[in-house]
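Team,

Forwarding the record for the chain on the shared tracking sheet. I've put the sequence and predicted structure together so nobody has to dig through attachments.
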Amino acid sequence: MAPTATADVESPTTSPTLGLTLPDNAAKRLVKAGIDPKAYPTRPQKPEYLDQVYAIRSELREHIDPGSRADRSKRALLSAASKVVHLTAHIGTELHGLQLAQLTDQQKDELALLIAERSVVFLRDQDISPQQQRALGAYFGVVEVHPQVPQVPGVPGVTVMWPDLQIKENSRPASFRQPGGAARWHTDLVHEAQPAGITHLHNDTVPETGGDTLWSSGYSAYDKLSPDFRKFVDGKRAVYRSAHRYVDRDDPAAGPKFVEREHPIVRVHPATGWKSLWVNRAMTVRIVGLDQAESDLILNYLYDVYERNVDIQVRFKWSPHASALWDNRITQHIASWDYEGNEPRHGTRVTSLAEKPFFDAEAPSRREALGLDN
């Protein structure tokens, strides 16, 4: 299905969209927000060298999670919803009858707690501008301004999620056998000193068929491990790397390198106090202190726990103007490219950075905290 033209496109070489036609819903949303579709999107001046990226957010900062100050009953939020639907037993809740742009601060705190408990929360039919989306993200934490990807003009930190544009920019066509991009299990921004907390993806345009997104629960992945294996992984640390590669200024001939940082592979969420398994196949490199062969064996098993247990996953069928808010501290996600680019898909994303990951040996797992049998 071809998208409806909404703005004149000069040429593939001069157009910010590289000659692509912006989907109608996306253009209308931009115009309503006072953003010129002809200037959309803008692109950052991409850093080339490794030291430039390390310097972007090198100093630690205090992070107080909004969910930690919320009323545990979440009464202000849930009583305002017309319907609350838990999509699975372990992960995923859909709220009806609420507008994210109209939430009070108390409701935002309670939404953060609900996300911390249920890992991902969905709301359909949202009327929210890129500016309002950023403001909500800033309430949850410091908004990450990505140094590599297209942004909404004048709204730093609102990333453009447009698969057709990403494919064209990368000059690497996606295919059924190799969809690439987000079509593999991952967690966002694990290489940061203070990695991602809540991410809010708003899709104004989605395929009529396909294009679902799946999330898997880190709480439940940890609970899937045997008690003795939990003791083994508790306190272990791993090296996490960036999705993008850079040049070492001091040794440019060495080839592309990643930003790498150490974090615990089991972390504790500050709002719930529950342990979560925190590894992902795309960006976890090795467990510190183990030989690479040992590390690979253990990590591949841990990845499988996340990826193969369908009872700890939720699959969301998008509709136009739906929002998903998930917590990267306790989830992995993957996008299905089963629509194969035959229909347009477009949205905007805001990610709020959270605390430096920490481990607490005395913290319970989710099932322990809720009194559930293993």
